[in-house]
Amino acid sequence: MEDRDIVTSGGGTLLIAPNRREWTVLKHIADEAPFTDILPDMNAALALVELKEFSRNEKTRRELFALFSRAVMSGRHKTFVRAAEDGSTIYSFPLVLNSGFKDVKSYAQKKNIEIRQAFENSIIALRQEELASECICANSLLLRCALFPLYPRLGQKDAAQIVKVLSSLP
Q: What pTM was computed for the model?
């Protein structure tokens, strides 16, 4: 439920009871919880909307993923293969670059698209100096894997701009 997850609540957490028996226990715990442990109304509302719209959002993400995948097919860069029907597309489109991340990032920024390194918070990123020589493949992915936005509410204009950038990356 973090801000960069498939279902978000603005960094909070949503807890739902499946039955009345569990709801009674949950309500008792929530009534006694300190105010700081309870989600603000806006975050809770966001999480509920995300859950209600999950199927529709997932369908849109899959369509965008397919569109973005077609855009990179003729280029030098590749994306990861994923199961057609299983698994989620998550919140971004990963692209394994055939060139350096910095060049691609600056090109995308010129077109008003924000990208980031896919593994920027991984162990290899945090301990790169120590692990780079032992974890060659992980280090390579750290340096060459970019995440492009893949939000269900991107809109046609933004999606078209991302497709244009993906198909013309340096």
A: 0.74
Burial 59-93 (b: 16+ CB within 10 A, else e): ebbbebbebbbebbeeeebebeeeeeeeeebebbb
Predicted confidence (pLDDT) per residue in 128-159, tens digit: 999 999 999 999 989 999 999 988 888 889 99
Query: Which residues, 6+ apart, have CB-to-CB distance to 16 below 8 Å?
Result: none
pLDDT tier, 91 (very low <50, low <70, confident <90, very high otherwise): confident
Those residues whose C-beta lies under 8 Å from the C-beta of residue 32, and which sit 6 or more positions away, are: none
CB 97 within 8 A of CB 77: yes
Sign of CA dihedral 141, 157, 91, 62: negative
Phi, psi of 145 (to 5 degrees): -115, 120
Between CA 150 and CA 90 the distance in angstroms is 8
Return the H-helix or E-strand segment holding 136.
helix 136-144
